[in-house]
Structure formats: structure tokens, C-alpha cells
Amino acid sequence: MASVEIRDVRKAFGATQVIHGVSIDIVDGEFVILVGPSGCGKSTLLRMVAGLENVTGGEIRIGERVVNDVPPKERDIAMVFQNYALYPHMTVADNMAFSLKLRSAPKSEIEERVKKAADILGLGHLLERYPRQLSGGQRQRVAMGRAIVRNPQVFLFDEPLSNLDAKLRVQMRTEIKELHQRLKTTTVYVTHDQIEAMTMADKIVVMHDGIVEQMGAPLELYDRPANMFVAGFIGSPA
Ligand code: ADP
Ligand code: MG
Questions:
Q1: Can you state the angle between helices 107-121 and 136-148, rounded to 10 degrees?
Q2: What does the DSSP 8-state code read for residue 55?
Q3: Most ligand 1 atoms within 8 A of CB, residue of 44, 55, 83, 190 to mutate
Q4: With b meaning 16 or more CB within 10 Å and e meaning fewer, what string describes 176-210?
Q5: Over the stretch 38-86, which tens digit does the pLDDT of each residue have?
Q6: Please, are residues 204 and 171 in contact by the beta-carbon 8 Å criterion?
Q7: Model confidence over 124-135: pLDDT tens digits?
Q8: Nearest-CA neighbor of 137 among 154, 158, 160?
Q9: ipTM
């Protein structure tokens, strides 16, 4: 676990600035949700925390360490995307083991970590299957398993449920929250779904056009929206 500190972070692609001085403090073990309309900069911000995009200005700290110039592989972070491509030619077990193999972890440790992640996610009986033999929800669990085995300090989720049907989405929300209660890993979770934000977050950060409109506990935002944008966004049906 680690805190994540985003301090006056800016991002431009060429001449176009898309993130305008965003600051967010994320406490050790907190589950923070970035929410806002499509195109407001959620993924870009998350990718900067992961190191997949460089920052144009400001500072990102993970724990005590400023990571602006630290490559993704050296940040102790695991990311789960919306299009969580599993390796089709590898079994579930090998999909989960792959990133540990890349990091030259000892074989016995890999086996132990894969087994533990599989137990947590209810994948124990599916370890020898291939992705094509799994349901959508099972694939999503394998994608999470790949993140869990690394035992990272920080989880980053980018709209991980948006390709699932409504019923499964509700079930996976609960599973992700239970996972967080169990592992207490600091989590930054991006969604454009305000219901997801209201039901899952310790703290919600409402973004709009590259700025933070408001952040706070779900009920705080609901009871005291800072402006019309937040009120409209939080109050509107999914
Ligand atoms: P969100 O995830 O909230 O939908 P994004 O972070 O993907 O938003 O995008 C924020 C803005 O940055 C959008 O206007 C998008 O078009 C722009 N953008 C994102 N990535 C790039 C890129 N690689 N090059 C140019 N513009 C980009
Ligand atoms: Mg996005």
C-alpha cells in the first residue's frame, strides 16, 4: 500500500492542454473514484499515475517517492483496463503468472501467488482453461487476478466494467469492493457511471474538462454539490 499524491498536474498533447492543474491526495488504502463525462481527462490522469503518459507539469508521488521520471515497470502499480486483453494462447494460470515470470520471480513463489489470487477470485477450478472457454465475468476476474498476483502498492482501474452487461456489472462492483476490503490496496478507479461512483468510493473526484470540480465522500457530494455541474452529474440517472 502507498499514498498517491497528485500535485498541480498538467498535461498537453501538442498545443492542446487537456489537464489543467489537478491536485488530489489519496491516502494509503483509500478507494478513490475519478468520475466525469467522456473526454474530461480521467484516463489521461490515470495513465500519468501509471507512467504510461509523461506529465507536462506538476508532480506525482507514490509513497514518498516522486515518480515523474520513473518508468512504468519500476512503479509498483497494477492496472486493469476496460479492454483487458488476456493472452488467448495461455491458460488462466499462465495469464496470471506472466507478469511475475517477466520479473523473474522464483517458480514456487509464482505458483503460490497465482493460487492465492485464484482462491480470492473464485478461479481455482478454472486455472487450466483458456480465455475463450470463459464467460465475460470470469475473464474480468482473470484480468483482476493478473493485477493481484503482483501484490502492488496501488491498483488503477480504467472503466473495468463497462463492457459487461448490467447484471454482471452490479455483481462485479460488489466483488471489487470486497477485494478492496480484504487487500486494502490503495485504489484509483475511473468510471463515467455516477452510480458506480456513489456505491463504491471512499472518496469521489468529479472531473470536467481537465479540472477537478469537487472531491469528497459520496454523501458529501450528494448533499452539498459545489456547483451546478456536480449537482447535474451526480443527480442524473445512469
Ligand atoms: P476520458 O478518459 O475522461 O474519457 P481522456 O483522458 O481519454 O478522457 O481524454 C481527455 C482528452 O485528451 C480528450 O479530449 C482526448 O481527445 C485527449 N487525448 C487523450 N489522449 C490523447 C492523445 N494520445 N493524443 C491527443 N489527444 C489525446
Ligand atoms: Mg477514458
A1: 140
A2: -
A3: 44
A4: beebbeebebbbbbbbbbbebbbebbebbbbbbeb
A5: 999 999 999 999 999 999 999 999 999 999 999 998 999 999 887 778 9
A6: no
A7: 999 999 999 999
A8: 160
A9: 0.98
Measured distance CA(123)–CA(135) in Å, rounded: 12
Element spanning 180, H or E: helix 166-183
Question: Is residue 190 classed as helix, strand or coil in its secondary structure?
Answer: strand
Beta strands per DSSP E along 67-158: 77-80, 154-158
Q: Classify residue 104 by its DSSP letter.
A: T
Q: At 105, which amino acid appears?
A: A
CB neighbour burial string for 47-63, b if at least 16 within 10 angstroms, e if fewer: bbbbbbbebeebebbbe
Strand-pair category, 4-13 with 57-62: antiparallel
User: By CB neighbour count within 10 A (0-12 exposed, 13-18 middle, 19+ buried), where does 145 fall?
Assistant: buried
Dihedral sign of CA atoms 15, 16, 17, 18 in order:
negative
Pocket mutation for ligand 1, best pick of 18, 20, 189, 212 (most atoms within 8 Å of C-beta): 18
Query: Can you name the residues that pair with 31 across neighbouring β-strands?
Result: 187
